[in-house]
Amino acid sequence: MRPAPPPFPWLRAFEATARHLNMTRAAAELNISASAVSQQITSLEAYLGRSLFKRANRRLTLTASGALMAPKLTNALTLLHEAIDDSLPSRRSQTLNVKVTTSFGSQWLMNRLDGFRMHHPNLTVQVSATAEPIENDRSTAEIEIRYGSGDWPDIDATLLVAERIFPVCHPDLLKRKPHLKKPKDLTRQDLIDVPGYSQGWSDWLTAAGVTFDWMKHRITVDQSVMAVQLALEGRGVALGRSPLIERELADGRLVAPFPQQVTTGAGYWVVHRKRSAEARKVLSFKAWLLSQTTPQAAKARVTKAKNKSSRS
């Protein structure tokens, strides 16, 4: 027979503190005092016979046991709240407003969204590329998928997938003359470029050991989705940005002719207001987004989280 679970308030206090890594913020979310949160976590640690947090220099970090327990408990509490919401007629139909870039929305999110709807039929997802950033008080967005480094103050940011850049082209371009077999063969190709990114063709060419005035071969467009479309039409070689070309590479409509890839240090992040951690629909969508990525992306998330914690 399994032992009785610890009291629910202890679990709730730990889960909120694990998300915020701050007892004061957890207390504000739970509408109790910080000392009450501390006492409940101490009681839970005594019950389990192990520490869940490391406490050093007035900063909290999760122990190995705490890191293992926290995401499972968040998912369990999310499911519990969803079950309650689904049982109440007044809560059966909800809307979640999502802000996303046009390229990421069209190339990654929309072809996966039916999977979320299948498991959350009572939650309507409204996607917009034009909504105000969520830091703006006028914004209707409750959660955002944002490109960048993740260094945004006063909001909760979790890495979804790190960006890598590498050339991609139509398969026929490998057969057509002039041949495209080595990076130096790019000197005889049109290079499709999207200005505005911190790293681009110059960085990839340098990493591949190729030097030439690539700007003379440039076709410029202002969105990644347009660059992908030109590559699909065989109009040139685009600088592919993961995860925006996953689908085209998987079905063979585009190929990566060279093995060299460059990690840019940027990526796509799941962003929401810190107070939105209370909204179960936000947590449900966030958990689903993170479940759509690869084990390598999950490993990168852990590394990013550790780096952000060490800088704070």
The description of the largest β-sheet is: 8 strands, mixed
N- to C-terminal distance: 44 Å
Strand order of the largest sheet: 4-3-5-10-6-9-7-8
Strand content: 15-25%
In terms of quaternary structure, the protein is single chain
Strand tally is 10
Q: Based on Cα principal axes, name the global outline.
A: elongated
Low confidence ranges: none
Radius of gyration: 23 Å
Give average pLDDT, whole number: 85
Note the total helix count: 11
Structural class: alpha/beta
The helix/strand order is: HHHEEHEHHEEEEHEHEHEHH
Helix content: 40-55%
Write a concise synopsis of the structure shown:
The chain is an alpha/beta fold and 312 residues long. It contains 11 helices and 10 strands.
